[in-house]
Amino acid sequence: MDQELQNKLFDKYPNLYVNKDKGIQASCMAFGCEVGNGWYELLSSLCHRIKNHEENIASRLKYHEKNNTNPSASDSCYIPVTFDQVKEKYGGLRVYFSGGDDYVFGAVSMAEEYSYKICEICGNAGKPNKGGWISTLCDNCRNKT
User: Fold this and answer.
1) pTM
2) Is 84 helix (H, G, I), strand (E, B) or coil?
């Protein structure tokens, strides 16, 4: 993904991409998002869903603190998500992360599965090729490569 699009994600979701500045010994996020521009919207949508989920948890925790009640075990034990690596593998999006809960695991799994239907280059409808180096592309982008 080009630097301009990555910076938009990094600026909008700094908590998810905090590992990008820790160096390659700490996290592969130091290499940035190693995917094509076509998956920007998919990745942005995933980040948005995770951010909203975490804001909802924080809101529920504040409510319980204000009202002197006990939050659910899942809310009180929640560890915020940080991305460790974002890349393409076997034609699909891969997001390796720390923290989260079942909701986050489901959202990441859905984004990864959906990536097999989106051209990694342009973002139009695409599909993986059957042999060789597997990539998910639309017919137009596949004919250009």
Assistant:
1) 0.94
2) strand
51 is written with which tokens? 């951010």
Per-residue pLDDT tens digits for 73-110: 888 999 999 999 999 999 999 999 999 999 999 999 99
Paired residues of 85 in beta bridges:
96
Domain residues of the chain, as ranges? 3-118
Kind and range of the H or E run holding 57: helix 40-66
Report which DSSP code applies to 24. T
- CA dist., res. 127 & res. 116, Å (int): 6
pLDDT in tens, 4-45: 999 999 999 999 999 999 988 889 999 999 999 999 999 999
Q: What is the DSSP string of 96-140?
A: EEES--HHHHHHHHHHHHHGGGB-TTT-SB-EE-SSSS--EE-HH
For 128, the enclosing helix (H) or strand (E) is strand 127-128
Q: What are phi and psi of 114, to 5 degrees?
A: -65, -25
